[in-house]
Specification:
Elements lengths: L3 H9 L3 H6 L5 H15 L3 H14 L4 H14 L3 H11 L5 H14 L3 H14 L4 H13 L3 H12 L5 H14 L3 H13 L15
Helix pairs in contact: 1-3, 1-5, 1-9, 3-4, 4-5, 5-6, 5-7, 7-8, 8-9, 9-10, 10-11, 11-12
């Protein structure tokens, strides 16, 4: 399911803004994180993991966010053993939100979509601005055969983030659900163009 790629790209950069503000992270490391995110997003998981391990060695201050990203990448490729081993190493350093997120991804790796949804729902309760949790919860609902509920959750996530992958997923579900999907797509278009930085947005994701 194409929606699952999104959380990896976002997770890889999760700790970056905060660390940049504190001038902890070097420019080279910032670029490496973005490269790792691009590799993960394109499906090159093993090179992404290798790069992240290098970042983790070079920047100990980024141990937690980088470990979270590696854990989720292991789950993405089905290497549950390595994912759980690394999770056990850093579990005591994680916030409640991070623990719930990782448990959600672990449940997805096991094919336990109902349990995964419950974890992501708890994350949203802890942090309503966590678009990654909301999106993955929507994906879980889709796997559970709850198309209408999935659309509602994707729509809620689109109020937090206008990430192209999120919108691509949402318009795809519109096409499955209703013949009035074009009208709904134009509502999304209105949301995008109301933002100040819409000029560079990849509008092809709306499939108009």
């Amino acid at each position: 399911m194409y929606g699952l790629v999104y959380h990896l790209d976002q997770a890889l950069l999760a700790g970056l803004p905060y660390l940049q503000e504190q001038r902890v992270i070097k420019y080279k490391t910032s670029l490496l994180i973005q490269v790792a995110g691009a590799l993960a997003g394109s499906g090159s998981i093993q090179p992404a993991i290798k790069l992240l391990k290098q970042i983790k060695t070079d920047q100990p201050d980024m141990c937690v966010p980088v470990s979270n990203a590696i854990i989720r990448l292991y789950y993405q490729v089905g290497n549950i053993y390595k994912g759980e081993s690394l999770l056990a190493e850093v579990q005591h350093k994680l916030s409640e939100e991070e623990k719930e997120m990782n448990n959600g991804f672990k449940c997805i790796a096991h094919g336990e979509y109902n349990e995964a949804y419950q974890h992501f729902a708890r994350v949203v309760n802890l942090n309503p601005t966590n678009a990654v949790a909301s999106i993955n919860g929507a994906v879980c609902l889709l796997y559970l055969g709850k198309l209408s509920d999935s659309i509602v959750q994707f729509e809620g996530a689109s109020k937090i983030s206008l990430h192209p992958m999120l919108l691509f997923n949402l318009v795809s579900l519109y096409e499955l659900k209703t013949i009035a999907n074009t009208t709904k797509k134009y509502h999304l278009l209105d949301s995008i163009t109301s933002k100040s930085d819409w000029e560079a947005f990849p509008f092809e994701c709306l499939r108009l």
